[in-house]
């Protein structure tokens, strides 16, 4: 029997992580067209609502059905507005590992949502799904994303040299690809011990201005 992630809803103090819905398409497209998101991710530019609907209705269900991943909308508990996305990819059920990534919408940055969503996802993966390893990869110059990894207890394992393709704006306004390094992080169940207490002592999730 093939292992797959369930259609789950994960709640935190401020957020609800749930499956992407077609109603999310306009906000998802707007979020993916943001300059920083475009710079640090591989999403097509410009990112259309049609592309967003394809992600929601085709790509995400296929990834979950194949057992390789899971895409979750990150929404505010009080307003229900979309504020980000958490993705699980390259899941290996024999090794019990997965790769986690996160994107926060420009209208929700500086609230600590990336770390709150990532930590809640990790707790669910280690608890309910009994995974043993979560891997994160951050571009060498993406310091905000690295701060999120550090904040939730990840350990830096090393550098994949020249393995990341980022994008930068050219003088004529188009995007050009540039190569950089990936920093590889890992999170194990024991790494989460004390993380919640440390966050409380540091003032909660808003200590860093995270976006991706």
UniProtKB/TrEMBL annotation:
Q: Domain N-acetyltransferase: where?
A: 15-181
Species of origin reads Streptomyces beihaiensis
Query: Mind telling me what this protein is named?
Result: GNAT family N-acetyltransferase
Q: Which residues form the signal peptide?
A: none
